[in-house]
Amino acid sequence: MNVVQRGLRSIIRKPVKSILLLLVVVVISSFFMAGLAGQSASIKTQDATRQAVGATFRLEGNEANRHKRLDEAAKKISEGEDGTYNGVIFKHFADGSSMVKTDNSFETIKPEDAEKIAQVDGIEEYNLITVSTVVNPVNFKRIEDSDVDQSNDLGGVNIRGNRIMEMDMDVSAGKIEIVDGRMIQENETNVCVISEELAQFNQITLGAELQFNNVKDKENSRIYSAKVVGIYKTTQKIKPVMSGDSYRSENTIFTDLHFPEKASGEEGNPLFQYAIFRVDDVRAYDRIKAEIEKADIDWERYDLIDSDGNIKSMAENFNDMEKMSKMLLVLVSAASFLILVLIFLFWMKNRTQEIGILMALGESKKRIWLQFLTEALLIGSIGFVLSLGVSPLLSNATASYLARQTQEQAAADAGSVSTDYVAPELTIQDTEISITGNMVAIDAGVIAGLLAFSVTIAGITIMRKKPKEILSEMS
Amino acid sequence: MPEKYDEKTILEVRKVNYHYKANRDKKILDNISYCFEEENVYAILGPSGSGKTTFLSLLAGLDVPVTGKILYKGEDIQKEGLNHHRKENVSLVFQSYNLIDYLTPKENVMLGGKENPEKLLAAVGISEGDWNRKILQLSGGQQQRVAIARALASPAKVLLADEPTGNLDEEIAEEIIEILRKSAHDLGKCVIVVTHSKAVADAADMVIKINSGKIEEIKNF
Ligand SMILES: Nc1ncnc2c1ncn2[C@@H]1O[C@H](COP(=O)(O)OP(=O)(O)OP(=O)(O)O)[C@@H](O)[C@H]1O
Ligand SMILES: [Mg+2]
């Protein structure tokens, strides 16, 4: 009878000790797996959170560069003369006063620059956003607060053009929800989406043509009309860019990309305030950033801003979560080791007689150890397989618990950071933990290692003794 | 010693001293020398606590003398290793607790040797219905007989037994003695039996008395 045959008989015919070990292995393996899952969940959640927050880059004008260009223009246009240089206009008046004006071409983000960045590998889609442009509502009335002094206000509404409305900052931040109709798609012209308040106030329904013209020349400027294709409601208040009712949230109208320039009398001369680039794979965020910075554009003119919400502060939380998972793994391993050693000491104690008999029959200590190891590993593998059934539940529970903790923390941190950009609600679509082959392999390896190590440690107590000593302990 | 004597000697005790570590002052074996021969049954007698079991365990290679040697066929048993000695040269029956409880009687016998476990079990009086039962469902006497069958199953030349008939009926005990005699005389084994039993001592070819660390050989006639 070989070691395995004997081991099998011992497992089956002395089931109590086997079941004890089996249960312990199931528990250990499940907890260990949960720890592993927690670790992988931390990475997954990190990605998911980034995605939810919207892993994007934002391109905007650099303020220092703007001043530099202004100074440059001032130098080019010799003092005391009128002139135009690179979108800067100087005018001198008879009374000695002077004026410096910039036009849209001076202020705008150049679409061709945005286009170059959009070509970078890893950029999924991009958006251009015009400046909030105040225009005059011709065939409808804006919403006004009669208590507020409107003397400094232009008396218009503000319109904002997007290349892709869905990617507008307020829209993607979830502050706006379409309640009727739809958003504006790429390449549409002369369409708009208005607030439900404005629609109600003016009895406007989908399909209506709204008319706008230049707010500075309400009487004579050309009127442009845009068809209402959607009505939105605000779920979070949109912060007005300036005071005055022209900019109030209800008077904000989303349009196609080129409508604002037309309605403000600047057709062909757009003013894009932001370009936003969406990253297709958040894990490649840093690589893509490096790629973007290589793009052949005048980088001095722009700032590239990481619009990844508050990933920095989140990253710390995720690191904590990873640490927690690691600690769980270490604790589980250490506790398991102790428990297993105790179990095997109990085995050895209970099996002194058997050990003595086998030794008297000339069985080597090595082979006796091998039999215990075989039994432990056989039971261990059954326990391990059983734990594969249990651990997904436990892993999911652990992982989503850890994820929730981390997110709450991240959200709390985000709230305390003051930025224009408000992170959207952090919802994790998928904390479902898939137990990967890799995890199973690690778990199996660790369980086998723990079993072998603890059988050996427990075995030392017996194996150090002489057979005679063991036999005298028998009776 | 005569040459013929040497040839038949299978197990030799040479100038063996033994005391337990726990009690160094009490000499269990005091400079003992003796030669055990093939084809003989030896009975070891002595008062309780005189060192019979200790002596047997030294012969079995379960323990080592403090000084002196045990030789198997002229060679120190420590040379090939005590494991090897226990596995190949001797088979053992303890005073009690001989069997592995998760193995059946038949499987226990097969630990000694694979051939004819049924025949051996039948020979020591275990009926067929008990061959595959649980060990703990057997009586003490039955367990002892299974242990004897296991020792008999072993091809080893030396059979060591510590009070094998201690808790057996006289009738069965006689049968066991007869089996032991046969394995000595017919199979050429050297059978060494520790016993209190007069019947066993009478059946032995040689009687050895242990007392106060010394042994004394008494030939049987
Ligand atoms: N492990 C031990 N440590 C210390 N002393 C021991 C040990 N085993 C036995 N002894 C002592 O050694 C002496 C001989 O013991 P042993 O078991 O050899 O006697 P025995 O002749 O077999 O007795 P019995 O007829 O009762 O079986 C006894 O005095 C006993 O107390
Ligand atoms: Mg004894």
TrEMBL record, chain A:
Q: Which InterPro entries match?
A: ABC3_permease_C, MacB_PCD, Macrolide_Exporter_MacB
Q: Where are the transmembrane segments?
A: 20-38, 327-347, 368-390, 440-462
Q: Where in the cell is it found?
A: Cell membrane
Q: What is this protein called?
A: ABC transport system permease protein
Instruction: Specify the superkingdom.
Output: Bacteria
| Residue ranges of domain MacB-like periplasmic core in the record | 96-294
Chief place where the protein resides:
membrane
Record Pfam families = FtsX, MacB_PCD
Q: Any idea which UniProt keywords this protein has?
A: Cell membrane, Membrane, Transmembrane, Transmembrane helix
Q: How does it sit in the membrane?
A: Multi-pass membrane protein
Q: GO molecular-function annotation terms?
A: transmembrane transporter activity
Q: Which residues form the ABC3 transporter permease C-terminal domain?
A: 327-457
GO cellular component, alphabetical, reads: plasma membrane
TrEMBL record, chain B:
Q: The ABC transporter domain covers which part of the protein?
A: 13-221
> Which superkingdom?
Bacteria
Q: Which InterPro entries match?
A: AAA+_ATPase, ABC_transporter-like_ATP-bd, ABC_transporter-like_CS, P-loop_NTPase
**Protein name per Swiss-Prot or TrEMBL:** ABC transport system ATP-binding protein
Keyword Nucleotide-binding tagged = yes
List the Pfam families hit by this protein, alphabetically. ABC_tran
What Gene Ontology molecular function terms does this protein carry? Answer: ATP binding; ATP hydrolysis activity
Gene3D superfamilies, A to Z? P-loop containing nucleotide triphosphate hydrolases
Organismal lineage: Bacteria, Bacillati, Bacillota, Clostridia, Lachnospirales
Which keywords annotate this record?
ATP-binding, Nucleotide-binding
